[in-house]
Amino acid sequence: MMNEVKTMIKNERLRQARFFANKPQIQLWLETGIHYSTISRIECGYLQPTEEKKVKLAKALGVKTDWLFPEENSK
């Protein structure tokens, strides 16, 4: 149950960062090369991004990687 909550927080941060950066998934795809369906799966918690994808997403959204994916760094 706790992992589900952490996943929800992490994925909500990706959505929040996109919202505040005013970037729909398709624009993020064009900037990062990460297909919008993959971005959607990451946001929904169906897919864990690779380190490379984490860095690309954080850079495109103008946030730190450890903020965008906090549970990965707290282990």
Alpha-beta content class: mainly alpha
Do you know the CATH topology?
434 Repressor (Amino-terminal Domain)
Which regions are unreliable across 5 or more consecutive residues at pLDDT < 50?
Answer: none
SSE string: HHHHHH
Shape: globular
Report how far apart the termini are.
17 Å
The helical percent reads over 70%
CATH architecture descriptor:
Orthogonal Bundle
β-strand number: 0
Fraction in beta strands: under 5%
Number of domains: 1
Q: In terms of topology, how is this protein built?
A:
Blueprint (H helix, E strand, L loop, with lengths): L1 H20 L3 H8 L3 H9 L6 H11 L3 H4 L1 H4 L2
Helix pairs in contact: 2-3
Describe the structure.
The chain is mainly alpha-helical and 75 residues long. The protein has a single domain (2-73), classed as lambda repressor-like DNA-binding domains (434 Repressor (Amino-terminal Domain), Orthogonal Bundle), CATH 1.10.260.40. The protein has six helices and no strands. The chain has helices spanning 2-21, 25-32, 36-44, 51-61, 65-68, 70-73. Helix 2 crosses helix 3. The longest helix has 20 residues, at 2-21. The model has no long low-confidence stretch (mean pLDDT 86).
In brief, what are we looking at here?
The protein has 75 residues and is mainly α. It has helices at 2-21, 25-32, 36-44, 51-61, 65-68, 70-73.
Key descriptive features of the protein:
75 residues; mainly alpha; 434 Repressor (Amino-terminal Domain)
